[in-house]
Amino acid sequence: MANDLPGSYCQNCLSWNPGERETCLKCGTRLLILAGDQTWEDEPDESDGGEDLEEHLLERITGLEETLRRVETYLETVSDQLGKLERSEVMLRNGLMALVQEMEQNRQLDAHAFSQRWESLVEENLHLISARELFTRYRARILPIARPKSMAQLKRALLETTALLESADLPGAAQRLGQALPLDPKNYELIFTIASLHEAAQNFEEAEVLARKVVGLSPRHFEAWMLLGKLLQELPEHADQAIEALHQAADLRPEDPEPRMMLAELLLDQDDLQGALEAAQEAVARRKDGETLLLLGQVHLARGESAMAVPALKEASSYLPGDLHVREALAEAYLLQEERPKAFAILQELLTQNPGDPQLLLMLDAEDHPQLREARDGKAGTQLMLDEVETLLDENQTEGAEVLLRRVRRKGRSQRSEWLDLRLAFLKDPEKQLKPALAFACSDRHPRLCFLALRLVLEHLMEQKREAEITRALDAYLGRHPKSTGAWEAALMRLAYRLMNGQVTEDDLIEVRRLHTHPLPGLEPRARTLLGQYLLALKHHQEVLDLLDPLIEKEPTLINHFQLGAALAGLGEREQARLLLKEGLEADAGDLNDGQAKGVKTQIRGLLKELDEAGQV
Length: 617
Fold this sequence. Notes:
Blueprint: E1 7-9, E2 16-18, H1 46-105, H2 111-142, H3 151-166, H4 170-178, H5 188-200, H6 204-217, H7 222-232, H8 239-252, H9 258-269, H10 273-286, H11 290-302, H12 306-319, H13 324-336, H14 340-353, H15 358-365, H16 369-376, H17 383-394, H18 398-411, H19 415-428, H20 434-441, H21 447-463, H22 467-480, H23 485-500, H24 506-517, H25 524-537, H26 541-548, H27 558-570, H28 574-584, H29 594-616
Antiparallel strand pairs: 1-2
Protein name: Tetratricopeptide repeat protein
Keywords: Repeat, Signal, TPR repeat
Pfam families: TPR_16, TPR_19
């Protein structure tokens, strides 16, 4: 039907524009059909229409070019901001590391404790951050395949889950989104998102059930296969299923290195060294960086191929300079090559940064590479179970540890499994296991494991003050492993025990000085603290002053304040001693635990009271 009113239709949005307008009322587009009495049947003049069309297209092109320039300018601005952010991050990280190193050198910070606390906080935050990112990414995939009837309730569940994640309630978020599953039970993206939230909240059983359901509904779901592989690889009895899941993920994304890296780690744990090597090489071929090269080096180490491990680990070190795991693996490679000086140089450096690290001490004491692997990892296929046993024993959960150890024995004994067997038996009946533990300590097993057995014996005997047996146990161990790291710690324990019982002599002081002169890397403060206590006990106050006065500004710890204050009091410098001891009450505890710190503060208060009473006389 013809339109008799003056005006025109917009060629962009098809809206009617009455009157003599040149631009559309609704969208603002310049109108091609000029104002006037126009109908659908009217045929516009070809020349005029062509000119109008040309002019319109030129205007549109000009507008697009202007928009493109604005986008380019915006992207350049974003790129500049990202560059500034990256530089700021690097400066902040470098500044933080420099501060930590400076404080550690000045004995104002326990770098090991700081590192553990930092890693714990980072891991906790990373779980939350990754859960938020994953939820944000996958929530957009849920609604397009949702059933129309459930749309409104699903949207509400997603909003409430978002709020719970923002408040850092991971378990609550997983539970709330899980309540929406009956609304759309075949929505595989919804199921996967719930499974991922459960995995982040460490509800692994629920996550595994849901991940299996996802791959059943959507067999080409790469992320679900990866999640299932990750969950199953922690369960030794499901290792074959984990390998199959990771193979499926690798087939779905041939260029992605992540499934191959996980596969290499799992095959390495299962002692399939050829399969692990192939998977690690494929991962490096797809992405060469510190992580993939470290994995390749570890596989070569497991295969005894030190000549190939060293170059891979050196290259990994160029990507990750100073990384503990890379440096530790490189030290192991040098041990395998029997280049012990190079290995010991690395281990000494690492122990200074990580005092008392059990893995580093195992490596330092190892007589050869096979002994190290047997004491650290156990027999093939048992490492994960032995790790779990150790965790259970740390928590005094003897029943669960016993069940796992029975399964380990079926796969074969190792030095590590024998040590954990002994530890379990000792927890149950210490008195009955004293002789077996001492026999273990004096055996030809790995010297570090022997020391751990000795420490069980000594701690039990010291609680009961059985001095004759303590001396015999120490003498037996020191005679069997005189050059081990445990020998240094055992000697320090014996001297500390003698000091605690008031049995110190000048000969003991000579031994303490020897230990202080040749300390175990990273444990220098322990030796210095014991030396200070011995010097005070034997009234060598000037030597305490010479030992600690140069260090008190760099290491203003509680014990240093006490020892230096006591020495000044012994030399008659009462006012200086009083000031130093009062400062000590507010000083950092340093390496002392809560009980030790409380005891030292009690001694400081007693000494201050004596100084006050002496001043009143």
